[in-house]
Amino acid sequence: MALNDSIRYHKGALFIDALAVESIVSETATPVYIYSLGRVLENYRRLAAAFAPLNAKLHYSVKANGNLGIVSALINAGAGFDCVSGGEILRALTAGAAAADIVFAGVGKTEAEIAYALRQGVGWLNVENPGELQHIQAAAEASGREAVQVALRFNPQVAAKTEPAIATGHGAAKFGMTAAFVQRLLARQAAFPRVKIAGIHLHIGSQLGDIAATRSAIKKALELIRPHPHIKTINIGGGFPVAYQPGEKLPSLRGFARALEPLLRGYRVLLEPGRCIVADAGILVATVLYVKEQAERLFYIVDASMTELLRPALYGAYHEIVPLRQTEARRARAQVVGPVCESTDVLARERLLPRLQAGDRIAILTAGAYGMAMASNYNARPRPAEILVRGNRWWLGRRREAWADLLQYEEPLGMKKTLSGPELC
Ligand SMILES: Cc1ncc(COP(=O)(O)O)c(C=O)c1O
């Protein structure tokens, strides 16, 4: 089972740190996300310790889980942040991050986002496109910034051992720039006098299943910057894997760090971990609404769905599912499905689970990364609440959306107005 020191059974009941999950859920209702801040910080410290010999700076990837309580706890632990939109920068700043500790990445930054990032004073921009350099130069002139520090995102054209949908470093991916492209840009540095190309950035994918592809990508990056000794920073991205399935064999954080250390000595190293910090610190709790048996299949229809946890529908991702109360009930193969009107709204297929009844509660494990962050209002479903746990205390991090919230951006019926320019934002 993908349980851990924070999320585990105690006397037959599922606990998160010192609290029975049932005791929280009896007050919050379901579906609900619950996160252990202790586990988040433990994961952060484990990664920091593994990369301590490299003196690496960790920039937590806000896209994995932008909950303000989590971001704020990581600020206190010393993290910087990797943001991929103006909204994520705003989120990190709102939680109290220093702008200088933010790396602004992303394949399609708008001019407005670039200008905002510069006005705020973000520390780094990871550039994926020559056009971006022009926008950065213009925004630097407009805001009076003399020097903006950027890293070029390199697409090393290596295939990471991972789910194809989350591989980003192969030549056919939209991410980054190939070696020839990076070389051409490096040759044109003087055309962007306020842009200081001081780093090289790569991220070859998420949930990396081996270290070899990362090593090979880093070697290629170092080769590329060798003729440019002023480039002293290498951002190796995130992608450190997490066990979603019991018994899954994956490279360890220490394994990654040890294998990369000889290559990276002498460079300033940045990391952008997301999943490995938050995934196993979070659960999504749901209630069984109905049990349906037909066509020789057993369906548990639960109140969570692809709108709360998209990963199974998006890329067939596996999440372990456990009851809140351990039971001796007979086990049967079942489909755990949500109420959304899509055939792909299946949280688990043909999964051996204890027999459940309507009203029983289940926890979907390892849901702390790319869970709430990808949640949507499809089928006009309000997004769930997020609960934070620290030891024996819990509190509401984000309230459940109400039906009325779903209407908050609508214009009153019958009032037609033509919008233009900035009003559209
Ligand atoms: C550029 C970049 N950095 C970091 C991350 C975080 O990856 P992970 O959550 O697998 O650590 C991603 C994920 O998509 C990414 O695209």
Explain what you see.
The structure is a single chain. The chain is α/β, with parallel strands linked by helices and 425 residues long. 26% of the residues lie in helices and 25% in strands. The strands form 3 sheets. Strands 4, 13, 14, 15, 16, 17, 18, 19 and 20 form a 9-stranded mixed β-sheet that branches. An 8-stranded parallel barrel has the order 5-6-7-8-9-10-11-12. A 3-stranded antiparallel β-sheet has the order 1-2-3. A hairpin with a 2-residue loop joins strand 1 and strand 2. The two termini are 45 Å apart. It binds pyridoxal-5'-phosphate (PLP).
Secondary-structure blueprint:
Blueprint: E1 7-10, E2 13-16, E3 19-20, H1 21-28, E4 32-36, H2 37-50, E5 57-61, H3 68-77, E6 80-83, H4 86-95, E7 102-104, H5 111-120, E8 124-127, H6 130-143, E9 148-153, H7 179-187, E10 195-201, H8 212-225, E11 233-235, H9 253-264, E12 268-271, H10 275-278, E13 282-294, E14 297-302, H11 311-315, E15 321-323, E16 331-337, E17 346-354, E18 361-364, E19 385-390, E20 393-398
Parallel strand pairs: 4-19, 5-6, 5-12, 6-7, 7-8, 8-9, 9-10, 10-11, 11-12, 14-16
Antiparallel strand pairs: 1-2, 2-3, 4-13, 13-14, 13-18, 15-18, 16-17, 19-20
Number of E-type strands: 20
Distance between the termini: 45 Å
Query: What would you call the shape?
Result: globular
Which value, in Å, is the CA radius of gyration? 23 Å
Small ligands present: pyridoxal-5'-phosphate
Structural class assignment: alpha/beta
DSSP helical segment count = 11
* pLDDT < 50 stretches: none
Strand content: 15-25%
Helix content: 25-40%
Q: Given this structure, which CATH class of the largest domain is correct?
A: Alpha Beta
The name of the CATH architecture of the largest domain is Alpha-Beta Barrel
CATH topology of the largest domain: TIM Barrel
Main sheet makeup: 9 strands, mixed
Mean pLDDT metric: 94
**What is the domain total for the residues?**
2
* CATH superfamily membership of the largest domain: Alanine racemase
